[in-house]
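Can't attach files on this board, so I'm pasting raw text. These are the components:
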Amino acid sequence: MRGTIVLVALVAGGCDPHARFGDRAVLWWDHDDKPGPVPAKREAMLQGPGVDDELFRSLDRVLSIDYGKEALNANALDEVPNSTWFEDPRRDRDDPGRTPHPRALGADALELGGPAASLGPDRSAPLLITRAKTAGATLGLEVRDARGQKFLLKLDPVDWPQIATSTEVVATHLVWAAGWRVPMMTLIELNEGDLQLAPDAKTRDRWGHEIPFTSDKLKKLLRRTPINGDGTFLALASRWLDGVPLGPFNFYGRRHDDVNDRIAHEDRRELRGFGVFSMWINNIDTQELNGLDMYLGERGRGHVVHYQQDVGGSFGSRAVGPTSYWMGTENYFSGGRILRSMVTLGLPPRPWEGARVAHDRERMLAQWPELGFFDADHFEPQTWRPLIYNPAFARQTDRDRYWGAKRVVMFSGDEIRGAIRAGRYRPETAQRLFDILWQRREKIARAYFSNVAPLDYFRLDGERLCFDDLWIEAGLGGERATEYQAAGAQAGEGRCVTLGRAVGYRVVELRARRPGERHFGPPVRVHLVEEAAGARHIVGIER
Amino acid sequence: MRVARALAFLWAMQAAVVLAEPGPPPDPQNGDGYDGRPRRRWTTGDGLLLVPRVVLLPVRLVWKGISYPVVWYANADEKYHLTDRFWALLTSDDGQIGIRPEFSFISGYKPNFGASFFDRKLFGPQTAFNLTMTGANQNIIYVSARARPTPLYRRVSNDIAIIYNRRNDLFFDGIGSVPGPNARYAVNAVDLRNDVRLRLSPRVQLGFGAMFGFRRFANGTQVGSDPPIDQVYCVRDGAGACIPGTVNPELVPGFHRGTQFLRFGVGLRIDGRDSTFRPSSGVVLDLGADYSHGLAFDDSSYFQLRGAATLVLNLWQRSRILLLRLAARDIETLNDTPVPFSELVVLGGPDDFRGFRLGAFRDSSSVLMGAEFRWPVWMWMDAAIFTEYGGVFSSHWSNFTFDNMHPDIGFGLRVRTERSFIMRFDVAYGWNDGGGLQFYFSGSVGP
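---
Top answer:
Structure tokens for the assembled complex are below.
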């Protein structure tokens, strides 16, 4: 008996307290593109899924006590592998793990927002209108260019030039550069003569009945968009996605008839982390309707690809006009917050409350109408909310938020300016947008690089294990005075530690202490394998 | 020895792991974890939470069950424009003419449902005509027709109203500072009114009104433990027993034959608030006087003075508001005929003294003080906590004592849009007879 106890104690004490990673190559491509049958099409609905998420799923999560579960598709380096959901353009497509650092994309790539070949319509002939969206507040035209390529043209509301078009272009380029799949978008300048009606062009009336789209209706539609003095107007050309549209994906559950859809969407790191990226650009409209699944390839031999097809509800825009004073800080219905406000008699105040918010909003709309109600002063990452409860965002853990923040911090100032150039803003508006994005980037980094050790991009350099300190990279300070503590290695110079010889599996634990802090922060553990011949490789990172 | 063997085994296992060549990346399609570690399907946390999860499972299932029809309707509504079609049926294309549902509930009374027809262009732009019909059964009917034939922008406006009110469940608990036993009576009432308002400045308004009132009373119906009025406020025989079908005119003046009267009034309103819909600061002062003269067999002749002041204090950024109210009324009969009981000063109900039933206090004068704190709990909902302190007295507050004043407290919610009110809910508690827990719920829904 005593022997058994000793054995248990030895096993418990002798084993590493943290689960080991297998000595395997890191997964950088999730091959979720295996051939499968075409899944059933889901109807693109706004209200039903919105009510379901906002009212029912939010409470169901409370009742199921579904908290603290980590995302299921993070690889050994706590990164998201490329897949049909996410493909990081900063990685080498053929060998995504070749370099520890993501590469810079540069300002020009951000301005372009995707491969040059896939952009803008061919304007050598008028764009042929096949369908129009005239009912409701948002205006859109489905057109074919001279090559027969289909585009969706979106227009601005008459009182708010650029609020729909420029916003969506810039936001889409940023989202693309961060790795999520989006349709390619570009801004074009048109006049009425650039448009031609197809004989069978259609639209829908307010009751959804299909009716012919006539030149009168086109004129009426164009009267609802801002026209320049020379008769031109700005339009956003969104390239039609290839493949068979399958309707939107939900941020909860799986598409069970898709053979590759194995992880519940709310447990996907890239969908959880999209919440952090969305808060950066204030993409409040992250409901189901704005995602889109496309089936690529021949029937039965193709696979599903997942897009964030509409991020136009970003910055201070709601496409039909500027965002309301509360948007970005509150869901439509936040039962818990309402109850808390009632019980506490409104203490503390909600972020959208007070005359100051309304006053600031009015001032911003007067000064920078293209951006709507968008700033950094009223932004707090912890209190940011999309319009509708998002089951994936709600399940974010510190690691998911850290990953999301990392996607934000990757953008250099030049890259952000490049993306903003695509919006063709006035210089003062462009500068204002840059300032806001830069300040929000910093707020996000401060918020989410604190709960997790922001030491990353580990690499081996001879006897040394080196890393980046993303806190410093993000410009949050402490370049010279940050101290690093290493367990399982000797502290080295700068952001490197000396490993020393130790054949086998080992774990190096690192912590950082920022200037002014009394204690070292949370740890990050680097799992390494050192072979007898002295070769070492990193097999995993644990946060 | 066994320990040593175990150690050796562990060491060999570790060596076997680390000395092998790195393997291929995990294959999640075949069940590998993305990070190369075995997937932990069951954690200690899961085990600990098993019991509460099982306990909450039935609630989840019910919640899920509720979700299906709601989500189905939301989808059907979007697809077939059900709500839009419904409102389109009830509203003209320009939104100027239409019908809206109305509902109200006051605790102790039957809930009322009905509809309101509006026409905002009947007499020209910015004029108004409303016809409201609500009720609960054949004995509870409310019909009002209100017209404002003058446009809003005119300095002089004219409001005309015809109101018919029939109820058999109205509350009566005596006249005087100390409420008597509860009872219910019935009324058939018609009001014809014409009010002319003269806007002296954007904040000052002078009003002149004329009204014809007609009331006939009858025995009420039993509501809860409240008996019909003739079982309580009856004429009693020598033995003290109620004579069936009688109501004592000394206890309930004017009940027997009813009343009909002409009333002429004048009023001054100074409204210094920053907004009439959701004020956050300012003062409102209302002063008024009217004279009523009974017609035909009704010999009553009485004069009323009323005054009310409301102070709205902005506590924080026009979002936290404190309202302080003081109101007083006094009715004085000008001859020997007592003022009909229905025209006396009445306190209680959703509009003034919320911790008490509608009609809980009735006499010739009243004082009511109140404080209300309002704050937003949702973008489209404000909450309020309030307390009131008031009572009724004889003419000129002659028997005023603090013993005859009563407190209440309450909580309210107001659902609204940016510009209009949609629904209101109040719950209040009053300390005295006629008090207790009171609920009020009312609203008018429309796009």
